[in-house]
Amino acid sequence: MTAYKEDFHLASGHYLLSHSVGRMLKTAQTDFVEQFMLPWQQQNQEPWQQWLGGIERFTAILAELLHSEARLFCPQTNLSSGLTKWAMSLPESGIRKVRVLMSEQDFPSMGFALQNALDNIDIVYIPESLNMHDPAVWQQYIDDKIDWVFVSHVYSNSGQQAPVSQIIHYAKQHGCRTIVDIAQSLSVLPINLSEWDADCVIGSCVKWSCAGPGAGFIWVNKTILPYCEPKDVGWFSHQNPFEFDIHHFEPNESALRFWGGTPSVAPYIYAGHSLGYFAAVGVKAVREHNFGLLTKLQAALPEFYRSPIQEDTCSGTAILDFGPYHDEIKARLKRASIAVDNRRYGIRVSPHVYNDQEDIEALVEVVKNG
Ligand SMILES: Cc1ncc(COP(=O)(O)O)c(C=O)c1O
After folding, report:
1. The pTM is what?
2. In this protein, which residues make up the domain named Aminotransferase class V (predicted)?
3. 271 is a domain residue
4. Do 327 and 198 fall into the same domain?
């Protein structure tokens, strides 16, 4: 797996921040010039045909990676925007109170989006102290009074992985809709959207997919798609964008009804290229490599290791809590050019395909011996 290290731009030091921004592929720049710039530079035509082809490549590869259909994906700038659009599009929104279950560990932006998307919303938060990888916790909170269940596949501050299939199963038993956030799991944990059968999935490609910011997306279950009426629309949401009749709007039959006006293109060119790379490597292989390095880290520093250690409950990120030594060790890591960050429960360490045993050993050495 270390051969993959050569495929990425890595500066000197040890980069362990893939939960934040994944490194850029060396081939991305040439691909971007070919797919985005050359059609614009060289032909006496508008480049939309090639640009839209780049977006189709993006949704096609997402469909391959996530085991679904390209027509169920729609580009979105980020997760917050996708979530807002989805929440506002549902038949019950604006008609009655909607009670949503989410966790205090969810990324705050997800709460902000939901609180503001609907006037009549009641959010029930699962307390931060509870284990989000424990199915019993979800079972306890999901009941007939809940309308929607929001799940993060991965909670990046605690390194926990939610049991998404089981949660969706409980939710269905109580007639709840389900929304899954895959920001922190795409391209590092295997995901099968057809098996999950959630109502909506939102994600982006800036983290483990190494594709830079701006290439978010929404996936909508085909059974509920016909009932979704997005409020934030534009000509690219129309079934036939080139009809140009201001009196006639027909939502696209695919998830593109969530698209909007003239789309941005550049982020999806990068993302299509990068996702293609991970589809070729195989997410299973990425996870094996990631889990192997997490296991080594846990074996070397068990006294500081706070995130789960089982493969089905841990995410791609390890959380290390140094207690009273936190500031000192953080400063030492910085001096040694070991790029990590810290959140509420400790330091976050995310080994990707471009990391190897040497990166983990360097970190362990700094922690143990300064
Ligand atoms: C779990 C999770 N969800 C969502 C986001 C980001 O959401 P958005 O794309 O709206 O900025 C992050 C960013 O770190 C995240 O970790």
Report:
1. 0.97
2. 100-363
3. yes
4. no
